[in-house]
Amino acid sequence: MEKELSERANAPRRVVVTGYGAVTPLGMNAAESWAAIMAYKPGYQYCDKSAAGIKSRFYGLIENEPVLKNVPAAIRRRLPRYARLTLASAQEAMKMAFGDEHPEQHYDLLDCGAIMGTGWAGQDETQVHYDDFLRTGMGSPFGCFFSMPSSATAAVSLLWGLRGYQNTTIAACATGTMAVGDAFELIRNGRAKMMLAGAGESLRSDSAVWNIDVLGALASEQGEITRACCPFSLDRNGFVLSEGAAVLCLEDRETALARGATILGEICGYGNFSDAFDFTAPAADKIARVQTIRHALDQAGIAASQLDYINAHGTSTPLNDLNETEAIKMALGDEVAYATPCSSTKSYTGHLIGAAGSFETIVCLQALAHQIMPATCNLNNPDPACDLDYIPNQHRPAQMKTTLNLSFGFGGANAALVISRGQ
Contact 45/62 with Cβ under 8 angstroms? Predict the structure, then answer.
């Protein structure tokens, strides 16, 4: 009996999603963003930055500043834009998860934590405030916090008094998925019972945009919006840079059910392996990407054939889309890969960089809730080498139980999450 109790106590916990929030170029919350995808509305637009020596012409920008209700000025004034977007997303997630209640009504706050991520943090504010100092001789005393990658994590922890595990994920375009995956592992292994996890990004200044544009990574299309972001298309020519944030509330399933929470889905498996190959190009051997997918499936305890839908990284760059297609085939086997529908919702959002993976995790949850697979927009001229079922241009109603979210980042970061309906 004692052995049985010990084994039960040490068994991996099931991890569920009870809330989520997002601020993207598609909408100021997760529901608006999903509705825009369903209406085939892109979140990016034409913007000429040629005067700054920038070649790319399309960007996903958020017009409005998020309303940070009930956030003390001592927190709010120290936040760069990416962190404000992140905090607004966290507020939406917490409202969805707890309503008008507070986490301490159900948890010891030492069991509650936060992992927020970003790829490039508050570069815009850092540059602006230093320029202001040089011009006026006066500088903001909060400049340090604007450039601090952990400012969003600190703000989330402070606002709700989350005194448990805290960390900040920085892994370029895989950041958001890794934040959710690491939080999943913490709860699964008993280190935490409730975690807020996600990421934010906002790069609007000419200097920040130029830094990426000069690499040749951004879309080179000069005028036609349907060719600016067209994943898996023969016309693809780089990614559209966007700003945004997305945060999820994860909980231990037993505790969430005991408090009467609504279960929105379950994180079942997580993979994270490194290319260790190049700063920007994916590894030609695809070993790490394949292992990332297989490990996530193994941890979830499912066969590849049980996947109903894959939300691909799908950046609309020549190298990634082909490499990703080949990696999926290698990981799942050709027969299963060709039979599994995939799509890239970056064709609507553009690339949210650090926040891409956490937002696309929310997309997977919304797809499961509505039982509809979002299409890959602008896929009018498919690349014959990218020959999987990438759901071109028309959303597809389907019965789904299990999805896979893929994210790959500069520096060889690879991450995958298996997400189910959470029965």
Answer: no
